[in-house]
Design brief:
The structure is a homodimer.
Chain A (H helix, E strand, L loop, with lengths): L4 H6 L16 H12 L7 E5 L6 E3 H15 L9 H10 L4 H4 L7 H5 L1 H13 L4 H16 L3 H20 L12 H8 L7 H16 L15
Antiparallel strand pairs in A: 1-2
Helix pairs in contact in A: 3-4, 3-9, 4-8, 4-9, 8-9, 9-11, 10-11
Chain lengths: 228, 228
């Protein structure tokens, strides 16, 4: 890509452009390092969830590491047998497209509508930095995660929903307190955990029920507007 | 541990203590979630390396995610065959002990002396939050990483040294500019890359050589003190 001046003129500026790698590195490795440097930006994509251990929002790189570690420790709760290494790969790459497409908050319905189009364009551009075989492989991992048609993808998605639930529990509400969101909305968004693990879904429901009982998630929609 | 009042009186306060999980969750899962919440703190352990994409230092969780992704994309450069999934698990957990023991900068020789003792105590305490089988498993992964006696551990360590080298390259020096550190010191610290991959070690040397040629790493030690 960098070697074709017609493409170079149109393409997005890359992080590596500020300090180009030596020309004499092998092209395959140069492409891989270019990609690995570019995805440093995952550390700057902020999520809605608050950290437990600091007064700031979590970023996608931190979230992806946490999910991967959850997969390693919780895989035995999957209702179907899963390949742990493959599931870890799914969560490591699942948010990469947000580097170019941005994070879409779970409870933001409007932004969700064109999310897939934006993310597909981002996937083509970002994974396209890699050698073709690896670009195709990462695209396949991302597609698998999104389609949830394999036990590994269903478990990866379950971790992606269980993780912020833990953060919201520790924050005594967190994004559950988003205006207009009710405990039933939270249950509806988290129900995919049950597609992967009945035991983890039971535990998640227990936390949501308890959160609702403590007033960390609303029981009724828009209480202030009920008398409008 | 939480159920024994004698131990509870002495033990370190855990993050989960601020918002305890419901008592009726199964004990095994409660221990796993307690650990997963506790390790949120990896996101607050700062490393010396500067990010490429923002004006701040990297934290251990971001670093661990980046290493895991490097393993997935660069595993074929290993001189010996490696199990990719196992290597990813090594890098996911390799820095966890720093939550209780802190990060020891690569070029800080004094702090390095009691590092292993501090980290072993931290490993006992942190991994001890998990169910026994998983505590033993994570301890074994961490020991394997530290001992570098397997091809997977050697490759994991190589990633751990290659990653900050890329960040320092992008920062046009970064921690290479630490007072008293020379390009030869950098080469000596990075030589373990060659224990895992001759091709990646060649590339790493090329970056260090070029960095030295550009003045991003010193060629001679303590030039200001040469006439003392």
């Amino acid at each position: 890509m960098c070697d074709d001046p017609r493409v170079a003129d149109q393409r997005r500026a890359l992080l590596v452009d500020t300090t180009p790698l030596p020309d004499d590195l092998a092209l395959r490795l140069r492409r891989q390092l270019t990609f690995l440097i570019e995805i440093d930006q995952l550390k700057t994509v902020l999520r809605q969830s608050p950290l437990v251990s600091a007064q700031r929002r979590e970023n996608d790189a931190e979230h992806s590491w946490h999910l991967a570690t959850m997969v390693v420790l919780l895989a035995a709760y999957s209702d179907e047998p899963i390949d742990v290494g493959h599931t870890v790969e799914l969560v490591l790459v699942h948010d990469l497209v947000e580097i170019y497409a941005g994070d879409t908050p779970l409870y933001d319905t409007a932004a969700g509508e064109d999310q897939l189009d934006r993310e597909r364009t981002a996937a083509d551009e970002l994974f396209g930095l890699l050698p073709e075989d690896q670009a195709a492989r990462l695209r396949a991992l991302w597609d698998e995660f999104e389609e949830r048609a394999t036990p590994e993808a269903r478990f990866a998605k379950a971790m992606d929903r269980l993780h912020p639930l833990l953060l919201n529990w520790m924050a005594r509400g967190g994004t559950w307190r988003t205006p207009g969101v009710t405990a039933d909305d939270v249950r509806a968004r988290k129900a995919v955990i049950g597609d992967a693990s009945s035991e983890l879904w039971n535990a998640a429901q227990r936390l949501i029920d308890e959160g609702e009982a403590r007033g960390w998630a609303r029981s009724a929609p828009d209480p202030d507007r009920a008398h409008d």
